[in-house]
Amino acid sequence: MKARISMITLAVHDMDRAVRFYEQGLGFPKMESPPEVAFFTLNGSWLGLFGHAALAEDARVSAEGSGFNGFALAHNVASEAEVRQVMAQAEQAGATVTKPAQETFWGGYAGYFKDPDGHLWEIAYNPFFHVGPAD
Known about the structure:
- InterPro entries: Glyas_Bleomycin-R_OHBP_Dase, Glyas_Fos-R_dOase_dom, VOC_core.
- This is VOC family protein.
- Residues 4-126 form the VOC domain.
- Pfam families: Glyoxalase.
- It is built from 3 helices and 7 strands; from the N terminus they run E-H-E-E-H-E-H-E-E-E.
- 24% of the residues lie in helices and 31% in strands.
- Strand 6 and strand 7 (120-125) form a beta hairpin.
- The two termini are 31 Å apart.
- The protein folds into 2 domains: 7-59, 2,3-Dihydroxybiphenyl 1,2-Dioxygenase, domain 1; 73-125, 2,3-Dihydroxybiphenyl 1,2-Dioxygenase, domain 1 (Roll), CATH 3.10.180.
- It has 135 residues and is α/β, with parallel strands linked by helices.
- It has a 4-stranded mixed β-sheet with strand order 4-7-6-5, with helices on one face. A 3-stranded mixed β-sheet has the order 1-3-2.
- It is globular, with a radius of gyration of 15 Å.
């Protein structure tokens, strides 16, 4: 297997709300897709949204459960100011900030938010990685 993630699919409880959050709130470009799913182009991969129960059924796992799901998505940016800007944009779009942007123990600057379905996102500036300016 090649080390690559082609698509990240998130289970959502309210497709319309999730699409509004990612498309209008965060500005992700939405692709043409059937009404039961939504796809967004990312930089070299895709984000998919799929109904919570339907995705669990497709994977043959239980749809029950809540709380911390054991992973976070990360979006690295080019500056501390950009971390603050993205965090503010997400909060304005309906995200819940779980950790405000701040200096990190590893020498960077980061904050966390949850999208409307509780998916955890880290927005980070890492001075040890080169990330170009936002598009």
